[in-house]
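Worked example 3. Consider a protein that binds 2'-deoxycytidine-5'-monophosphate.
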Amino acid sequence: MIIAIDGPAASGKSVTAKKVADKLDFLHLNTGLMYRAVTLHFINSGVNINNETDILSGLKKMSILFDSMDSNKILLNGQDVSKIIRNKLIDSKVSEVSAIRSVREKLVVQQREIAKNNDIVIEGRDIGSYVFPNADFKFFLTADINVRAKRRYEQKKIKDVSLNNVLFDLKQRDKYDKNRKYSPLVISDDAIVIDTSDLNIEEQVNKIVKIINKER
Ligand code: DC
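Given these inputs, the predicted complex is written out as structure tokens:
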């Protein structure tokens, strides 16, 4: 069974998806980590993201794997990069890298392969709309932009970064993710939309699990 959870940055997707997967005893796949890992790989190997030949050769030299015991642990070319890919530099570049068609094509093949013959909760931006249009359940998490900014601010607490900076960055990322040419962030017609602005994690997890258990 495939459960797709999509939504914008800081909508509570990641923690919700992981908890839903744990409750159902399903695998969990955070596709955002994959786009972040590619971004780091391109920075480290000096790939010029405006040059397709450079991009393709960079992609060829890249391996992305998840730790089989911990779905939030991602290995880039054999190295655990789980922490570094959440930093500010990656935050500022990942939307641009994830808008590249050949990057998306490569990662989508891998995402479909990981999900093959598995019960899995997959989270991202285009899971219900593109990667798994026939997913058994599609959820789309939203939340008020100010609530999202506050959550992200409290989560990161980075020195010298104000709540206003975080709000600005989120708005930029939303704009980029929604307006890119390939697989933009959209709400599928058949997705169940959950506004998490006034929900805590426990409440949103329970809401999703209840819907799944009622219908499966
Ligand atoms: O969920 P996140 O913030 O870690 O995702 C990082 C970036 O990756 C986000 O700006 C958009 C991109 N992304 C994507 O384009 N498609 C996905 N399925 C998941 C993430």
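Take a moment to read the result before moving on. The mean pLDDT is 95. The beta strands are 2-6, 27-30, 64-67, 70-76, 79-80, 120-124, 137-142, 192-195.
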